[in-house]
UniProtKB/TrEMBL annotation:
<feature type="domain" description="VTT">
    <location>
        <begin position="66"/>
        <end position="184"/>
    </location>
</feature>
<comment type="similarity">
    <text>Belongs to the TVP38/TMEM64 family.</text>
</comment>
<feature type="transmembrane region" description="Helical">
    <location>
        <begin position="50"/>
        <end position="74"/>
    </location>
</feature>
<dbReference type="InterPro" id="IPR010652">
    <property type="entry name" value="DUF1232"/>
</dbReference>
<feature type="transmembrane region" description="Helical">
    <location>
        <begin position="7"/>
        <end position="30"/>
    </location>
</feature>
<feature type="transmembrane region" description="Helical">
    <location>
        <begin position="328"/>
        <end position="350"/>
    </location>
</feature>
<feature type="transmembrane region" description="Helical">
    <location>
        <begin position="133"/>
        <end position="154"/>
    </location>
</feature>
<dbReference type="InterPro" id="IPR032816">
    <property type="entry name" value="VTT_dom"/>
</dbReference>
<dbReference type="GO" id="GO:0005886">
    <property type="term" value="C:plasma membrane"/>
</dbReference>
<keyword id="KW-0472">Membrane</keyword>
<keyword id="KW-1133">Transmembrane helix</keyword>
<feature type="transmembrane region" description="Helical">
    <location>
        <begin position="194"/>
        <end position="213"/>
    </location>
</feature>
<feature type="domain" description="DUF1232">
    <location>
        <begin position="259"/>
        <end position="294"/>
    </location>
</feature>
<feature type="transmembrane region" description="Helical">
    <location>
        <begin position="161"/>
        <end position="182"/>
    </location>
</feature>
<keyword id="KW-0812">Transmembrane</keyword>
<keyword id="KW-1003">Cell membrane</keyword>
<dbReference type="Pfam" id="PF09335">
    <property type="entry name" value="VTT_dom"/>
</dbReference>
Length: 351
């Protein structure tokens, strides 16, 4: 790689670095921010208020942690219902677009590299591209997947922007409509308008999931999708077999500090109880295991000297063949780290 290529590679990481910085800042400054705070900060002029809300949508899309329903509610309280829906739809378009292009610019080549190295990742990307509109619609309509993280992934995977945006908008419009309607009637939570909008929110979510399920079953490749899910599950299990070798490399005193940190993060993520996308979701449930985990493993292996990695893999394979188990107390630091993180989250949210 020449100097120009290295400079371009670093330049591609700038948007992602900015996004990570905004995530860290939001974790400290956005905590405790309420809809009332947004309303107090909003300008009195309707056009300026709309611009202010769109700016908040843009910041939300790059900060991940800020809840988008709070912006829906604020729109419903600031504007008449038609204007609130128009501003909300424009905000969703902004919210979907920015992280998509960050992923497309900063990590597009990385997804291609993973696809070349891992056949199952390539199969997943091909399946996604055959159903690009439905895929984008489905990940939005189920509602509980992290919106901005999914946008980063879909941008990095090369999903066509038009299909991505149309499917994403269609999947998020039911939530926009009902939550905005709740915001317009939030002054009286016992009013029929508020209660009906709350009930419709639940019904629309259930109906959207049912419609997506029916549409998926009617398509001729429904059975291959289930086969893909089984194949991805098997691939995820195979990937985790490299974790003992990473753990041995982590303990090796000759492993560089940077590689030790990466190995610790990879082992900690693989053993963590946190699943970014629940495994029961067909195909999507193994995205984190077949995209994020291979990425962490590949990044870590590149940082470990080849002779140490080869030795660690040989020792791990030898231990597995001989039936040896890693001593339980080697996992204590990982457990303690996750307990500490859980305590910090509880303290930040409830204490």
């Amino acid at each position: 790689m020449n100097r120009r290529d290295r400079a371009l590679a670093l330049l591609r990481l700038v948007p992602l670095a900015v996004m990570l910085g905004l995530i860290a800042a939001a974790a400290f400054f956005v905590r405790g921010l309420s809809v009332e705070d947004l309303l107090r900060a909003s300008p009195q002029n309707p056009w300026l208020a709309a611009g202010f809300l769109l700016l908040l949508y843009a910041l939300k899309s790059l900060s991940v942690v800020f809840p988008i329903p709070a912006l829906y509610l604020a729109g419903g309280m600031l504007f008449p219902l038609p204007a609130a829906l128009a501003v909300g739809a424009a905000g969703i378009a902004v919210c979907l677009s920015l992280p998509y292009w960050v992923g497309r610019w900063s990590a597009g080549s990385f997804s291609s590299a993973l696809a070349r190295r891992y056949p199952k990742v390539r199969a997943l990307l091909e399946l996604q591209r055959k159903n690009d509109f439905f895929f984008s619609f489905f990940v939005r309509v189920i509602g509980f997947l992290p919106c901005d993280v999914v946008s980063l992934y879909l941008g990095s995977s090369g999903l066509p922007f038009g299909s991505y945006l149309a499917g994403g908008l269609l999947g998020m419009l039911p939530g926009l409509f009902t939550v905005t309607l709740m915001g317009a009637s939030i002054q009286d939570p016992s009013s029929p308008q508020f209660l009906i909008s709350a009930a419709v929110t639940v019904l629309l979510s259930a109906a959207s999931l049912f419609a997506a399920w029916r549409l998926r079953r009617r398509q001729p490749d429904a059975h291959p999708v289930r086969a893909r899910s089984a194949a991805l599950k098997d691939r995820a299990k195979k990937l985790k077999r490299d974790i003992p070798a990473l753990f041995l490399a982590l303990k090796d005193p000759k492993t560089p500090i940077r590689a030790k940190i990466l190995a610790g993060v990879t082992v900690g993520y693989a053993l963590s109880p946190i699943d970014l996308i629940p495994d029961f979701i067909p195909v999507l449930g193994y995205l984190d295991d077949v995209i994020l985990l291979p990425a962490l493993i590949a990044l870590t292996v590149r940082a470990i000297p080849k002779e140490i990695w080869d030795q660690s893999r040989a020792l791990a394979a030898e231990g597995g063949q001989n039936g040896k188990r890693t001593k339980w107390y080697f996992g204590v630091p990982v457990v303690l780290i996750w307990l500490a993180l859980a305590w910090l989250i509880v303290k930040a949210v409830w204490l």
